Structure formats: structure tokens, C-alpha cells
Long-chain acyl-CoA synthetase (AMP-forming) (Chitinimonas taiwanensis DSM 18899), 475 residues
Amino acid sequence: MKAVLHALHTHAQRQGDAPALISPAHTLSYAELAERVDALANWLSQQGWSGPLAWLADNDIDWVVLDLALAQAGIAGLPLPPFFSEAQRQHVLADSGARWLISPDPRGQALPSTQLTALPLPHTGTAAPLPSGTCKLTYTSGTTGAPKGVCLSAAQLDATVAALDAAIGPLAVSRHLCVMPLAVLLENLAGVYLPLLRGVPVELMPLASLGMAQFPPDVPRFIGTLAASAADSLILLPSTLQWLVAATAAGQLRKSWRFLAVGGGKSAQATLLQAQALGLPVFEGYGLSEAASVVALNRVGAQRIGSVGKPLAHVQVSIAADGEVLVGGNTMLGYLGQDSASAQIATGDLGQLDADGFLTILGRKKNTIVTGMGRNVSPEWLEAEFCALPGIRQAFVYGDEQHGLHGLFFSSEALAANALLAAHNDQLPGYARLSGWQLLEQPLSVAAGEITANGRLCRETILSNHRLIGLGENT
């Protein structure tokens, strides 16, 4: 974080009046941001608080001020994703041993330079100590169990930001709009730290204004907010990329973009090709929290659709004999309460490196389906392909050697869905075609434990809830 904080104070001296953070209520210049960060960092240091300090807040200026102040004060921060369930949140607070929860709650102790307050948390004394040098503690989303705490150092965060800065190079954007929660490490590093390092203003909108405060999201509101913004840079998920591409194709969104990064899951090649045809500068990437976020990225002059780009300069990527992607060079300090991380992370993802160094992610190793003909099929590939079809909002592919491949779909256009699915299914390679599928009357839900609040499939729960294998499929 030294590089980001140094850049902040350098910009404050050289272009102090330039906007750094822009929200609906206020614009903060670089000089004002540096002043607020300094004041809060000094106050935090005087309190004698030890990390991690947990906080829960909307996408706003105070979130960024607190984040930077904690780093400057040398106190480990624990941002809580707003999409975590109450049970997940309580698990994180207990597991981390956080002694304070910072939020807008008016009952707490006021923090200077912000409208945030701090409330003390019960101390059980059972939490594992943080590894030495921990700057940020981030928790995985927990699709198959309780979230795990990933401990990252300031040097690891700086390394990712510096590598992204070098990869993007001379590409200039005028403003970045954060459309993911700031507690998501990808948005935190690439959507806040990187623009601040480069002197680019960051626009912060409440998640409700983006239509992202509830599930399912409000897609028209999301598109409307993009249309009204002056930003020319976004970081997208595969789902939000589909919304943007569809709105652009329909003439509902007419903007000149400079940089549209997409990550967090596999994007359908059809969506990426449509984006290219529309002239949208979409760059797919890949990363994981255990490597301090971004590992590989397509970029101007080095792009291959269907791949996640070339590995960044701060990491080394290789492929194991069984096809698993291995990442070294910027690995985490470790999971909280577990041994230190090894020099190389087994990601659990299957991938390929081509002769030119482009990395392609095929799917999750543990999710691979072996068909009766002995072919390995990644369900994520098929799910991305089907979700690229008009009206298909959710897709879940499952199967085994005995029953073949099947699908579960939710569509906003149920009457047309079967015909669309059948036509696309016929275009797939023979070994990857579905033997049958079901259309859901209601979407897979967070409440039922079938998806996480940011849309990731909880496969075992879906299989259990819907009793899928061999039951009720139709074509």
C-alpha cells in the first residue's frame, strides 16, 4: 500500500484540486482526500486498536477514506461484503476476532473525517492471530462451506496494482465507476487503488442506485445509472457484461467506453464476440483472492477472445499434469488459522496455456463431469453458453456417466426458452449436448442456499433441493 498512499499524497501536492472521489452528494479532491486519510489514520493510531478492524458500509467516500487510513496506520482491515448473509457475517466476525465493527450505526463512537462510527464487539479469545504483516483480511464467498479468511500483505496488494498499471500502460480513462461492492477485492484494487495510483477520479454510487442492493438485481436501473454516468471505465461480472451488451445492442445504452474489464466467472464466447462486434473494449481477466486478485488479463495489443489473457508480470502461472492452474509469485500470507501459504497455489481451476502465453480457464476441477463416453465436460462452459441466450437468466448443468448431461434453467421468456435452448443445444459438440432440461418457475435463490448473493452456484445444494438426477427432465 505504500505505492498507492505515496501516489495519493503526490497527486495531492501536484494536482490538489483535481477530483479524486465523486459521489452523488459530494466530490472530494486529491488534497481533501489526503487530508481526511491523514487525520483518520492519526486518530486510529492514537486509539491503540489492533486489527483486524471490520467495517460494513455502502459504496461511498467514507468507505475509501477508512480503507486508506487503516493501511496508512498499519492496522489490518476487514471489509464485510454487503451480500454476505447474517450467518456468514457473524461467522466472519467470530472467526477473525475483530474487536470493533465500523459502520454508519449512530450508536457507535464517531470516527473523525467520516460519518462512520465504531461499536465494540464481544471478545471470545478463540480467534487465531493474524500472520505478521497482514494488511487486509478478505473472506471468500463460501459456495461450499463457511467463508475462509485470506490474509494479504501491503506488499502483495501493491504488487497487484503495479502489475495492472504496467499491463494497462498508456490506455487513458477519464473516470472509473465502481459497480461492484467495494469489499470485493477486485473492485477494491482495480477499481479504487489503481485509478488513484494513476490520478483518475473514482465515481462511487450507492448499490441501490445501481440496482444491486437486492437479488435479483434491477437491470433497467443498472443500465440507467450507466447511461447517466460520465465514467468510461467499469469492472464487470459475466452477468453485468451481458446486460451491458444487450442494452447496447438494443440501442438503450449509447456511450463511448475506454475500458471494460470482466472477471469473477466464465463469460460466454458469444457475448464476447457480440461485444467486439459492437465496438465495446471488453477485456476478460482472471484472478483469485489467494493471489491478491488479478492474475491474468487481456489488454490492448494482447487480446485473445475466449482466453483470460496473459499472466501479469508479478506472477508465474503453470499447468499441472492433471490440467490444474498453478499460481506463484504473489501468494497470500495464508488462510487465517492455518499454516503459511506455499509458494505456489493450486487454484482448483482447470486451464490451458497456449504457445503465445494466453491462459484459458476451462472450469472448476471438482465440477468436471465425466460422460458415459469418457469425455470431460466443464459445466461452467455450458452454463456460460446458455446464459448468453436471450432471456436465459440462470443455468445449471449437471450429470454423470449413467444419466448424461442435463440442465436446469430460469428464463424471463419461458414460452420461447425451450426453442432457444434446443436450437443452441443442437449446435454444441455431440459429447457436450444436453439429454434434457427443466425450466424453473422461480429462480434459484439466496434464501434457499442455491446461490450466493453475488450469483455463484452452490451446486450440492441445488442438486439436493431439486432432486435432479434422472428426474423430470424434458426437452
Notes: DSSP finds twelve helices and 26 strands in the chain. Residues 470-475 have pLDDT under 50 and may be disordered.
